[in-house]
Design brief:
By secondary structure, this protein is mostly beta strands. Helices cover 0% and strands 59% of the residues.
Length: 147
């Protein structure tokens, strides 16, 4: 195990495209970190208050709590190629089953984003402020917060 010092504790990390990706909610960036050296090799400005990351469908996906958006990062250019409006207060993101799934805690919905068109194709109402989302075994799993 290797400790990598960062200016602030990230809200989320993900691994893919030969890098470690970490959010920095104070500076509104995602840090691309070289896993061998532990150095930040790129800081990519994303939406306001990034809180969740997922890797898949040829991109890095960032849920931004502060502006209700999903940023699509191109790992080849280290840039945001699309900002997608999703539901209110996105809290989590996952990739699978041909879609990108965003749990929106503010309006109690799950947004299904088509990574080909970068559009929300369906919004699914849930209850109890969804906090997490995962895709496995052909299903989308959502954690809910009661109270």
């Amino acid at each position: 195990m290797k400790a990598i010092p960062l200016p602030r504790a990230p809200k989320a990390i993900a691994v893919g495209f030969g890098s470690v990706w970490a959010t920095d909610s104070r500076d509104d960036v995602v840090r691309r970190i070289d896993p061998e050296s532990g150095r930040t090799i790129h800081k990519i400005r994303v939406g306001t208050q990034p809180v969740a990351l997922a890797v898949g469908a040829r991109a890095v996906w960032v849920a931004n709590l502060g502006d209700n958006s999903l940023s699509r990062l191109n790992p080849g250019t280290n840039s945001v190629t699309r900002a997608i409006s999703v539901g209110e207060s996105p809290a989590a993101v996952a990739v699978g089953e041909g879609s990108v799934w965003v749990a929106n805690s503010g309006d109690e919905t799950i947004a299904r984003v088509d990574p080909g068109s970068n559009e929300v194709k369906k919004t699914i109402a849930v209850t109890h402020r969804p906090q997490g989302v995962a895709v496995a075994g052909g299903l989308v799993w959502v954690t809910l917060r009661e109270g």
